[in-house]
Amino acid sequence: MTEKNIALIVGATGLSGSYTGRLLKEQGWTVVTVSRSAVNLDFSDRHIAADLKDAEASQAALAAAGDVTHVFYCTWSREANEDENVRVNALMIRNLFEGIADAPVRHAALVTGLKHYLGSFEDYANVKPYTPFLENSPRLSGPNFYYAQEDVLFEMAERQGFSWSVHRPHTMIGLVIGNAMNMAVTLAVYASICKHTGRPFVYPGSPEQYNAVTDVSDARIVAAQLLWAATTPEAANMPFNTVNGDVFRWTWLWQQIADYFGVEAADYPGHPTPLETQMVDAPGIWPEIVAKHGLQDIPVGKLASWWHSDADLGRDIECFTDMTNSRVLGFDAYQPTPDSFIQVFDELRARKIIPS
Hints:
two-stranded parallel ribbon; 2 domains; 15 helices; Rossmann fold
């Protein structure tokens, strides 16, 4: 008899959480979801609204989790500084595992990212790491909430007797409205505004990122690796970089994005022109576009995350990753990066979120 798989997905409304939830549901898993608020998710068999910052309240809410066998922790909270990031994010993951201490968990996966190699928000990209980023690289000095999350995961795995995996995606590409770190939707909105206003569609980041080799992580690849690690015994207790499998340069991809939207790719000025500055008037322009094209009336601030795309595109060091840990164990999922962007753009158009 096949053992029943019951997944608890924390951060189910985000990119990695939602894509993982849909994949697991397609594979016949029971999916229990957790987020701060009550939401209706099409892939969720049971949703729990829980504030993991509140130990007592989350303990009570998580009583409804039941006999979960696998945990997928796909959330974090951004606080005022990195010391608070460390404190709060460690507390949240601890409250989660203490709230399900009696569940028969077999495996728990944690999704972090490349700040593992690049440093915290306060010390971001001030290092010159070896590229590609290696999964066995030592931790950087200084506070980093990813390390704090890992330490709690390791402690709970040893205490409660389950295996773990840590997944480190690069910039994640997918479609979730309201996600705070969504470059594909951000660039789609930027291109649509440039087309509407006649502004130049200029690459907004640094010369180093414009010219360097880089990579990204399709949310479907992230979900596939999470499922693979949870069901592959040889993958137990390992960290995994999680990217599409190809590399590219923005000098090449920017033109393809411009062609998709029918705008001219402006000559790169040789210095950053941040989206937060360029798009300061976007809240006033976007309603014009919505009305002209009969789009869904979604505020531009809920679609675009200018600050996060500026951070990713503005780094002054080369950033790409090595996937040896999962590749040698047989994980072979691959996604061409232009398709990652174009498929999101196509869906945005189909759902009348951006103009056709």
